[in-house]
Amino acid sequence: MTAKNHFLFSISAASLTLATVDPFVLLIAGAMSLLPDIDSSKSVYGKILFPLSRLIERHFPHRTFTHSFFMTAIVAIGAIPLAFESKEFYFAALIGFFCGWFLDVFTKAGVSAFYPMSMARLVIPANPALRLATGSKNEWFFSVIFAALIVISFQLHSSGGVMQIFSSLLAQPTGVSEMFRTYGQTNKIYALVEGQATTGNLSGKFPVVDLLSNDVFIIRNSENILLTVGDAQCLQCHVRANSVKGVLGENIFIRIEEIKLDDKPIGKLVSLLENESGEVLIYGELNLREAEDLRIETSQLQFNPLQISTNLETKTVRFQSASLEDLRKLTKYNGDGRLVVKIITNL
Amino acid sequence: MDSITNSSTLPENSGGGSVAKKSFIESEKTMNFQTNSCYREKEKKLIVETLLGGHSILLVGKAGIGTSTLLKFAAEELKANGARIIKIAPNSIKQILISLAFQLNLYAEDDKLPTSPRLQREVTAALQNYKSIIVIDEANRLTVPVRAWLEELHEGGQILFLASKPAMARDLFLKLPRMELKPLDYEFIRKVIAKTAAELEIELTPADVANLQERCGGNPMLARRVVREHQIGLKPNQHDHTEWINGTPFLVAVLLCLTMIRFIGRGIGDTNLYILGGMLAVAASLVRLFMFSLPKGSSKLGG
User: Per 3-state DSSP, what percentage of chain B is helix, strand, and coil (rounded to 5)?
Assistant: First the structure.
């Protein structure tokens, strides 16, 4: 294979396997792909490092020592200092070097991949008539394929990666869950939902509030009501989605605070949180005394962020994805317990 | 008489030509261009010791790997050690018997020869009295009656030294201790290339040598051929040596490992990964089907 094809193949392989479009990383892979051909004084590196290439030429046939797993292992050890700088650089160097010589197994001559154990040449496929002649016109065909792979890889990674695109194609809740797990700390995630809610068909773009499981998540509808969304077989879900796709939204900053209440008025906490500029989500559990009159309406048609259970003298309120509005319902009571507050601000 | 030689039997060793007239590159000036270089001293020593010790040996190697050359060098060494050598060409049994009858002085040129069975008995008896080593190159071309006769001789204590291309494991070939010649080391192939280039009075750069070596592997006959091809400006893409490892099963195995993604997806409950893994497994199976349905090339040199 020509240097051009080694370069293109290594870049595409590094981009696809490392899921990156970082030009520096890809440049390392491309540069390393040309290194195995240092055993020829006519190659790029062979000309630059002529004494070394001439030395190798005097002792080894072309595509033997430098085109082997043994040499790859040496490079893997020799490139370890690169790993201290960046693991991506290190793996790019390894992938680049490996792809640099491995592509030659598809040529007529093959490579002595198992040097020094065997000098026999590794080839794919076995029939020499089906292998490529170095420098032949057919190489253009492969150049086009490798270039196309690079373009596809760039497109994939700039659109969120292979899994993201695949998830989007499948349009299943797991895709949104995966997106929320991956980007939920830095971006607002929206779900484009088409499905059946308990009240009728539901269609539209809704913000994802939280995950309940790998394939069930919570959205907030236009009436500020929380609904759980699952696939078409999820009977417990409020929305059974036929199609649901994740959409990456605006950048956000999330601050998490743990608040401990020792029989303190919840009203104070509400006042405190009202000063926060972002959206507030509350998780945790509070015990309320003298709250016999506490009544919170729950509905099977929506996700209830507050769940109340009654003990002997106290009432326990469990919070999940509760908003400040939900907390206001408890303003007049004193609470005892710990809450985790997630404050989400747009950047 | 120390040896009886059928002069038409052994091919000339093209590696044993005249002294190099011109060194082909500066660095190779120090290279030892011996005439009649064997390059397989270790094997030669073992063969000579085995035969002088009264044991037979079958030398086996692929076409061009150097069995005839080694046989010639070993025969010369045996002669030098005082052994009697009888070289036989792989002809029909009648031709071989007549040739041996004349060489063993059983009959003169003008004598009327007896029938083949009688001649065979007489030659056999003469060989038993005449302690010698029978040397046969290209033993794979021996006919069944000759092999049967040689087997009989061998069982009677006759020492045989046969060189053959990879032959079927049967009768005589099965009984003789077998030494299989491996491809020559690249160091020696460089010497063969250097010597051939010197004989042809052409200059080769180290880059040329490295490229030519790529085409001939460890086969000295091919090494000489590629230099001649280089001399006349041919750059054939065909690589005739047989030192290949088919990487297709390795590639397919690696691709089939993608099937694991499916199980990982299932294990961690990721439907997308499960489906993607399933699709990749199908793709890998299709590649496997395609790769194994490709026509297979011959793995034998010269056929």
Answer: 50, 10, 40
Say if A167 is an interface residue toward chain B (CB within 8 Å). Answer: yes
Determine the angle formed by the axes of helices B116-129 and B93-103, rounding to 10 degrees: 50
Domain boundaries, chain B: 19-180, 186-232, 248-293
CB neighbours of B75 closer than 8 A, spacing ≥ 6?
B10, B85, B87, B135, B161
Task: Give the pLDDT score at B32.
Answer: 39
- Does domain B19-180 fall under CATH 3.40.50.300? My reply is yes
pLDDT digits (tens, 9 = 90+) for A200-209: 888 999 999 9
- A167–B207: do the CB atoms touch at under 8 Å? no
pLDDT category of residue A67 using cuts at 50, 70 and 90: very high
Contact A47/A41 with Cβ under 8 angstroms? yes
Instruction: Name the token pair of B86.
Output: 């009888």
For A282, phi then psi, to 5°, come to: -115, 135
Q: Which residues of A touch B27 (CB under 8 A)?
A: 58
CA separation for the pair B22, B253 (Å, rounded): 51
Beta bridge partners, A322, equal A282
Classify A129 as helix, strand or coil. helix
Q: Kindly give, in sequence order, each residue whose CB lies less than 8 Å from that of residue B37, ignoring residues fewer than 6 positions away.
A: B15, B16, B191, B195
Q: How far apart are CA B57 and CA B138, in angstroms?
A: 14
Angle at CA of residue B297, ends B294 and B298, nearest 5°: 150
| Single-letter amino acid, residue A4 | K
Closest CA to A39 of A70, A20, A65, A19: A65
| Per-residue CA distances from A110 to A60, B214, B215, B261 (Å) | 15, 9, 10, 30
Q: Would the CB atoms of B245 and A118 count as touching at under 8 Å?
A: yes
Selection from B216, B155, B157 nearest residue B191 by Cα: B216
Q: Which segments in chain B show pLDDT lower than 50?
A: 1-35, 302-303
Q: What confidence score (pLDDT) does residue A88 get? A: 93
Q: Would you state the torsion angle of the CA atoms of residues B29, B34, B36, B37, taken in this order, to the nearest 10 degrees?
A: -80
Contact (CB, 8 A) for B260 and B252:
no
Burial class (CB in 10 A: 0-12, 13-18, 19+), B178: middle
| pLDDT per residue as tens digits for the range A5-58 | 999 999 999 998 888 889 999 999 999 999 999 999 889 899 999 999 999 998
Q: What is the ipTM of this complex?
A: 0.72
Burial class (CB in 10 A: 0-12, 13-18, 19+), B26: exposed
Structure-block tokens of residue B292 = 């194994």
Structure tokens at A243: 């199609």
3-class SS of residue B243: coil
- Work out the number of other CB atoms within 10 angstroms of the CB of residue A50: 11
Phi, psi of A327 (to 5 degrees): -65, -30
Residue contact A119–B215, C-beta within 8 A = no
Does A67 reach chain B within 8 Å, measured CB to CB?
A: no
Q: Answer whether residue A189 shows pLDDT above 90.
A: yes
Collect all residues of chain B within an 8 Å Cβ-Cβ radius of residue A123: 244-247
Total length of chain B: 303
Q: Radius of gyration over alpha carbons of chain B, in Å? A: 27
CB contacts of B248 in chain A (<8 Å) are 124-126
A142, A5 contact by CB (below 8 A): yes
> Under an 8 Å CB criterion, which residues of B touch A?
27, 183, 186, 189, 205-207, 209-211, 213-215, 217-218, 237-239, 243-248, 251, 269-273, 275-276, 291, 294-297, 299
